[in-house]
User: Which sequence fits this backbone?
């Protein structure tokens, strides 16, 4: 590997950006491709699919063989609200490979007794996210039903480009939420990215079922980055 490419690769990984080393196995030449870089033709399609799957491997394109060595940041799930849905979601998210953390300034909810194995921040999102910023490999789920807590986090997630942004609430609740976010300077296109009602539409009713629907929708968003979004709804 070109030492300069190694330096660039490590720099991208430190900043939690998806990056790939593309090596032509015929002549040994390699290059760095960042997620979102434009690469045309069949090779570009293979690169896009590899970024979405997160699995390295070789591909044959027009009689040439390339090895695609992809480096994907570990996905992170930030949940705004230490509620029953969050309690059910925590063990599922861990099994699915997400680093999950919960933010809720309401200390009656945000207690270690209720969430013994999850990083828990009993502070306002404005405070926590200043030191623990969101990024494009973070999913944010706002489930408090309290605009004073949810709205700032949703705005931050949309501005940062989180790969998933979801919020609990009915369509009527979400319409009011959209008006508030617009008044905060969030554009209509960004607001349309919010999955609300949150979760895939599987008829979920209980907190555990809603947690399943939410996690499924988050995984769908993670594995379809760069493709047309299909929104589902649950709660």
Assistant:
């Amino acid at each position: 590997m070109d030492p300069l490419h190694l330096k660039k690769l490590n720099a991208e990984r430190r900043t939690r950006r998806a990056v790939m080393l593309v090596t032509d196995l015929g002549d040994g030449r390699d290059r760095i491709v960042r997620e979102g870089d434009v690469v045309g033709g069949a090779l570009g399609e293979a690169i896009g699919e590899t970024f979405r799957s997160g699995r390295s491997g070789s591909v044959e394109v027009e009689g040439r063989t390339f090895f695609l060595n992809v480096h994907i940041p570990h996905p992170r799930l930030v949940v705004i609200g230490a509620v029953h849905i969050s309690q059910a979601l925590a063990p599922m998210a861990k099994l699915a490979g997400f680093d999950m953390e919960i933010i809720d300034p309401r200390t009656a909810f945000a207690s270690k007794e209720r969430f013994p194995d999850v990083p828990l921040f009993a502070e306002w999102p404005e405070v926590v996210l200043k030191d623990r910023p969101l990024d494009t490999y973070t999913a944010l789920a706002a489930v408090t039903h309290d605009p004073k807590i949810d709205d700032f986090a949703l705005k931050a997630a949309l501005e940062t480009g989180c790969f998933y942004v979801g919020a609990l609430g009915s369509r009527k609740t979400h319409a009011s939420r959209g008006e508030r976010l617009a008044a905060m300077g969030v554009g209509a296109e960004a607001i349309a990215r919010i999955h609300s009602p949150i979760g895939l539409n599987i008829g979920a009713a209980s907190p555990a079922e809603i947690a399943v629907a939410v996690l499924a929708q988050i995984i769908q968003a993670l594995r379809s980055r760069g493709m047309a979004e299909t929104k589902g709804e649950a709660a």
Notes: DSSP finds eight helices and nine strands in the chain.
